[in-house]
């Protein structure tokens, strides 16, 4: 159990670091009410998890440690749907209804498409 916790924790730490770097890089080149850094992170995270599930999904028992490190750990630390929800509440509270609708719908639709693309690539 300790080994599994360490794998998830290490992967999650790396994912969190990459999440922060995505935010810093995005903020350097883009400023708007649309939360682009979280959008990029969620879409990229969905794509990565699709790839990883596609690669490791067939032999779950033989790849359990890799799954814990990359899928549970890294992707769990990198993707930010809790931030997504908080940002949507903020957009709602600030009466940015068009941005709220565009952001929520685009995140969900493009995220699903990215997971599907990741799975298709691995087949």
UniProtKB/TrEMBL annotation:
Spans through the membrane: 36-56, 68-86, 98-121
Keyword tags: Cell inner membrane, Cell membrane, Ion channel, Ion transport, Membrane, Metal-binding, Sodium, Transmembrane, Transmembrane helix, Transport
GO BP terms, alphabetized: cellular detoxification of fluoride
Highest taxon of the lineage: Bacteria
Keyword presence, Signal: no
Membrane topology recorded in Swiss-Prot or TrEMBL: Multi-pass membrane protein
Stored PANTHER family: FLUORIDE EXPORT PROTEIN 1-RELATED
Family of the protein in this entry: Belongs to the fluoride channel Fluc/FEX (TC 1.A.43) family.
Record function comment: Fluoride-specific ion channel. Important for reducing fluoride concentration in the cell, thus reducing its toxicity.
Protein name: Fluoride-specific ion channel FluC
Organism: Pedobacter planticolens
């Amino acid at each position: 159990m300790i080994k599994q916790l360490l794998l998830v924790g290490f992967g999650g730490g790396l994912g969190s670091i990459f999440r922060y770097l995505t935010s810093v890089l995005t903020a350097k080149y883009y400023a708007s009410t649309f939360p682009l850094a979280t959008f990029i992170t969620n879409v990229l995270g969905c794509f990565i998890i699709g790839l990883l599930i596609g690669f490791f999904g067939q032999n779950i028992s033989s790849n359990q440690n890799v799954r814990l490190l990359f899928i549970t750990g890294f992707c769990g630390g990198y993707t930010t749907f809790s931030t997504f929800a908080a940002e949507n509440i903020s957009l709602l509270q600030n009466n940015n209804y068009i941005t709220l609708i565009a952001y929520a719908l685009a995140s969900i639709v493009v995220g699903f498409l990215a997971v599907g693309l990741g799975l298709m690539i691995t087949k």
